[in-house]
Design a protein that fits this description.
The chain contains ten helices and nine strands. The protein is of the alpha/beta class. The chain has a nine-stranded parallel β-sheet. Strand 4 (115-117), helix 5 and strand 5 form a beta-alpha-beta unit.
Length: 278
């Protein structure tokens, strides 16, 4: 793992930096990771030019590296030269709507990437609208992590519109300030998309959103995991979901942190276990 506090990155030391990166790649092989390091443009350029030389690199991770819509560009360009990369993780950066859309668009030239993580990048509904047309054109992208972005209901609805044409099987949207309207939009497309996992915990979903999911589950969509913990669903909403479970394919339904009675949670577990044996 490459840590910025182990090396001073300045233009005059680019050659040394590349040698250091090469050494890190040789040691860690399948993963290259930068964490809690504010990268300058020259730093990113040096990394981007070195990464394609790493045979078998599968995960590229920049966590809290200060990446913006402009500085991420060299990394996105190098993806086309790295067919072995399977995961691109850019959590806690400053990509914003423009950078997020550009990142998704770049995956059309990186057919090996199946997981894209963009949590905590200040992505709004506008960013989802901008990336939506590209999602349908990337057949290999199966997992999209967007948690801790201010998407609200509008962003959830924009993503729901894109799901049917996409290959996504897992979407993480926890702590995105999504309420019932967003939940209802997502529930309405469950039977027309490939989604098997949907994470919506720590949002603002109430019994109304729970009813929408319950209605969708009776049609037995591909969904196997639905995470609704720490929302605003009470016993009434939980009961509606429990009633729909036997008709569904769910093997995990999380409702903890909603004030739902323990007896109900245990019943959910039992039905999900039975579903797993179908």
């Amino acid at each position: 793992e490459y840590m910025g506090n182990t090396r001073v990155l300045e233009s005059r030391l680019m050659a040394a930096v590349r040698q250091h990166i090469d050494a890190v790649l040789a040691e860690h092989g399948e993963t290259f990771s930068v964490r809690h390091t504010f990268l300058k443009h020259d730093d990113i350029h040096a990394i981007a030019t070195s990464l394609p030389r790493a045979d078998g690199l599968q995960t590229v991770n920049f966590f809290a590296a200060g990446l913006t819509a402009q500085t991420v560009q060299p990394l996105l360009k190098m993806l086309a030269e790295m067919p072995s990369v399977r995961q691109l993780r850019l959590t806690l950066n400053r990509l914003g709507d423009e950078g997020a859309a550009a990142t998704v668009a770049s995956l059309a030239s990186a057919p090996g990437v199946h997981t894209l993580a963009l949590p905590s990048n200040n992505i709004s509904a506008s960013g989802i609208v901008a990336m939506a047309p590209h999602l349908g054109a990337i057949s290999t992208l199966t997992t999209l992590e967007l948690f801790s972005n201010p998407l609200y209901d509008t962003g959830a609805a924009a993503l729901a519109e894109a799901l049917s044409a996409s290959s996504l099987t897992a979407v993480d949207l926890f702590q995105c300030q999504i309420g019932d309207a967003g939940a209802e939009a997502l529930a309405s497309v469950l039977s027309s998309c490939k989604l098997e996992k949907l994470a919506l915990f720590l949002n603002e979903v109430t019994n109304s959103g729970a009813r929408a999911f319950a209605h969708a589950l009776t049609a037995a969509p591909p969904l196997r995991t639905l995470l609704l913990s720490d929302n605003k669903i009470d016993s009434e909403g939980a009961a509606v979901l429990v009633a729909a479970l036997p008709s569904s394919r769910l093997v995990r339904l999380a409702l903890g942190g909603n004030g739902v009675h323990l007896r109900t949670l245990l019943e959910i577990g039992a039905v999900c276990e039975a579903n797993s044996r179908k």
